[in-house]
Specification:
- The protein is α+β, with helices and mostly antiparallel strands.
- 18% of the residues lie in helices and 39% in strands.
- A five-stranded antiparallel sheet has the order 1-2-3-4-5, with no helix packed on it.
- It has one domain.
- The N terminus is likely disordered.
- The chain starts with a strand and ends in a 6-residue tail after the last strand.
- The chain contains two helices and nine strands.
Length: 135
Amino acid sequence: MYTLTCKLSKQSQVPSIEIQFWTATLLYLVINPSYSQDCIQWSLLPHADQGLKHKSSLLRGRFTGDPSFEYETTVTHRVGEGDNAQEQSTQIELKEEDRLAAVVCCIDEEVAIVPRGAYLRTPLGEVVLNHSYQG
């Protein structure tokens, strides 16, 4: 089950987005990227850098629900051209917690939206918060 809710935070007047993924027994929440197995104990997700996002994009399959589960896959690349081409294989290992952090970061980057009128562009080209925006 996927649930997307958007709410307006009182302090910043900028919407914060919550996305919940139900996979096995895990609940993943994107506000401060964190996850929980029982909705009581919460753990922060690690920071997803470009290398982690690339490794995550090479993996296929569903999440297992166990953050310590390690995915292992072999990726084969062709090096060279023509008759001199050789196949080079690379072993990729990635924990589910890291894969989840990369997937959540990619989703967050791809669906980031801002309500019309929440920000203004100044004559100098800067984008600033519109203090008169009420939502």
